[in-house]
Design brief:
Helices cover 85% and strands 0% of the residues. Helix 4 runs parallel beside helix 6.
């Protein structure tokens, strides 16, 4: 850690004067929650960076998959917590759905879509991280909507089963509702894709040496992969929930 690095870090932290100053003037009780959220976020980011550095340094495909598995378990725990559903009941299905869905779509991008000669950790980690982050945020909407709708409309589900419908047929309205819960925000955000994605991905790739047309192509691939992985992860999660009969009251 050099003196220059410490200086730049201090200068970056000075930017917090603006939000904390505004809260001090307008809403002082919110200062502590913001400070705690920043500390937790920085600690998680540091741990993620150290783990990612280790995966990069060792360069082993099985270690990279193990990293994705650990991150999927962590993401699944966060999803079930935010959905406010029984963790011990839905954690496995959520983690498995995220892991398998992200891994399949990520491998498709790495092997068949992206113009890379070899699938290394340099590509595996960022691609899987982008897919996992988006899929987890959409899983909060989709799984929460699915479980919540089923709990509120249990009578409709039991009525359809009692009248000869299969379990899949009885689940269809709830699956449709959960699918729309993850796709509706995506559809709404696509119109503002340039404003949302340019600062985070496009400019980052330009700074990393990508040509503009290549940065545009990779950005499009990432968006399409995020949409596909979120749908596939939710579908796998629902299938596992049904397979293990977790829908019983």
């Amino acid at each position: 850690m050099t003196t220059s690095f410490i200086l730049h870090t201090i200068l970056a932290l000075l930017l917090l004067v603006l939000p904390f100053g505004a809260l001090y003037l307008l809403d002082r009780p919110s200062i502590k929650p913001l400070a705690m959220a920043l500390i937790k976020g920085f600690v998680q980011l540091l741990l993620f960076s150290l783990i990612a550095w280790g995966v990069y340094h060792i360069e082993n495909i099985w270690l990279s998959i193990g990293w994705l598995l650990v991150m999927s378990v962590w993401a699944g725990f966060l999803v079930t917590s935010k959905c406010k559903i029984a963790i011990q009941k839905y954690l496995f299905s959520t983690c498995a759905g995220l892991f398998v869905g992200v891994l399949l779509i990520g491998l498709w991008l790495l092997v068949a879509v992206l113009p890379i000669e070899q699938m290394t950790a340099r590509w595996f980690v960022p691609v899987m991280a982008v897919l996992l982050g988006h899929s987890a945020s959409m899983q909060v909407r989709g799984l929460g909507h699915f479980v919540g709708m089923l709990q509120r409309n249990r009578g409709q589900y039991d009525f359809m089963l009692g009248n000869g419908a299969t379990q899949w047929q009885a689940l269809m309205p709830f699956m449709r509702s959960s699918l729309l819960a993850i796709l509706s925000p995506t559809i709404a955000n696509l119109s503002a894709l340039a404003l949302a994605a340019l600062p985070l991905l496009f400019c980052g790739m330009l700074l990393g040496g990508f040509a503009p047309i290549n940065a545009f192509a990779v950005m499009v691939y990432a968006v399409l992969g995020c949409i596909a992985s979120s749908v596939l992860s939710l579908g796998i999660t629902v299938v596992i929930i049904k397979f293990f009969n977790l829908l019983s009251a």
